[in-house]
Amino acid sequence: MIPQTFIQDLLNRVDIVDVVGKYVQLKKGGANFMGLCPFHNEKSPSFTVSPTKQFYHCFGCGAHGTAIGFLIEYSGLGFVEAVKELAQNVGMTVPENDDKMPPAQRAETKAKSMALSEAMTRANDFYRQQLRGAQQAIAYLKKRGLTGEVAARFGIGYAPSSWDALRAAFPDYESNEALVEAGLVIERGEDDSPGRKRYDRFRDRIMFPIRNNKGQVIGFGGRVMDGGEPKYLNSPETPLFQKGSELYGLFEARQAIRDAEYVLVTEGYMDVVALAQMGFSQAVATLGTACTPMHVQKLLRQTDQVVFSFDGDAAGRRAARRALEACLPYIADNKTIRFLFLPKEHDPDSYVREFGTQAFERQIQDAMPLSQFLLNEVSTDLDLNTAEGRAKAQFAAKPMLQAMPPSALRLQIVRNLAQLTQSSPVEIEALFELKKPLTRAQRAPARVNRRPPVELERQIMRLLMAHPVLANEIDDVAVGMVGQSAPDGGVMLEQLVAAGRVLGEQASFALLTEQLRSHSADFDPLIAEVAAEPESELQAVRLELAGAIRQTKMKLLKAESDRLAAAGLPTEEAKARYRELLAQQEQLRRDAQIESDQQKSL
């Protein structure tokens, strides 16, 4: 049995848009992606994929689910096979045994993660505070043309030259293990010279905090201000930070990427910050490592157009080649990937300063399409007038074309390569063993009519399903009271709350739906309903949930007080209960007024 914790981690790493996009041609439509449903015949697209909910839903036939569910329905795989296929795509290994980690050990692991996150946040606050009094660092940033506003936006700071400057922010500097594990300090080994036990990793450097998609600081990049080496010093790999999956500036650039409808990928921290200063806020950078498939997936989740910007020297060409290879498995006809090569003496920052923003915009517009770059790469320095040169070009192109999924773009590249090497497209496809996609007719899931929950119960369940983290905030008394007015005693609500609590703080709509699979198909209509709704704000839902629970309590209290009044309050006990019920109703009204005021302030 695959541990539930592994399923949660897997669904957090895969992107359903990428998974579905391999089998269904998707187009962006607002916040979601649209396409023709693969589970029933249709001429107008009613199939939607939500990148925020990580869920697909067809308004035509009712098919819906997570990335795991899609592979099961589309490919006919079993649950375990679908999980293994997704895991392989993101470099995860499916554990063979059930998760038997004792609760105490699980709690310890969670506490360590929180300690690392807290250490990063406190260090970032310290570095930002130190920048205010570091005149040489401020002068350097001003020389690079940065304003205080942009520096604040990216959270730029300064690490003092002292060997243990962080001691001022961490009174437990010598014993805090999180400082070592987070890569903020380096601990000397037993064989090192006596004296200082620990020392700061970052000293006398401009500090660039690296944030994850939630805006949390997970690492740092430190840049020297003089000619020292290394020019950039990055945080080491930690449980919070993996260079191959993170992009500098992506958190800050998300809105700008949507507005510009493309993302510009550069080679360094200063490129990103300087370009933002000059109006190109849609720039991001890899973190001192080559572009990886995980980077490409993240970029294509944000936009359909990616422009890689590299220096025109040999190192820039090598970096571009690695980026090309990382992109090939994710090529799609609705995606555009281009490569911008600046003159050898320029990086994006210096180019904009010398030639201006309009000239740089023209460079972006004229960037080389991926198809052209691929053909250039396989044919450079070869004599295509000879059979040997043409054979070498085909030899170099074969693994690249094999890495691409079947698409119209791949067909166009095959045709261009065939023309370049005096072959036919059919010969190229046969020689390269390019397989066409295998499709299989799928039947739409059966539509089942079930008795729906009552109105208030349904509203509460919808809210908890959209934001299952709220299951930890609803008490058992409230669940029981809602269940009193439910046709089945609130069994579904109890199952929903229990499933949300099991997931804990990592709970999400997609994870919850996988958890509910083991309970009952009765949740399908509710899941479909929530899947079709737009994304909602957690705080607004929290208040709406409290209001729905309060209405349920009010309904039950009023029904009981009406029964007592109708009976004439025959005993002192009945009279006391009646007064108690009226007081509780009045308290609920006051609570309603308070929450109404809070909603107005949102």
Walk me through what this model shows.
With 602 residues, this protein is α+β, with helices and mostly antiparallel strands. It folds into 5 domains: 4-89, DNA Primase, Chain A (Alpha-Beta Complex); 112-241, Alpha-Beta Complex (DNA primase DNAg catalytic core, N-terminal domain); 245-366, Dna Topoisomerase Vi A Subunit, Chain: A, domain 2; 376-432, Pheromone ER-1; 455-601, DNAb Helicase, Chain A (Orthogonal Bundle). 50% of the residues lie in helices and 11% in strands. It is built from 25 helices and 16 strands. The strands form 4 sheets. The chain has a 5-stranded antiparallel beta sheet with strand order 1-2-3-4-5. It has a 5-stranded mixed beta sheet with strand order 13-12-14-15-16. A 4-stranded antiparallel beta sheet has the order 6-9-10-11, with helices on one face. A hairpin with a 5-residue loop joins strand 9 and strand 10. Helix 3 (67-75) packs across helix 4 (79-89), helix 16 (387-403) packs antiparallel against helix 17 (408-420) and helix 19 crosses helix 23 (524-531). The model is unreliable at 437-453 (pLDDT under 50).
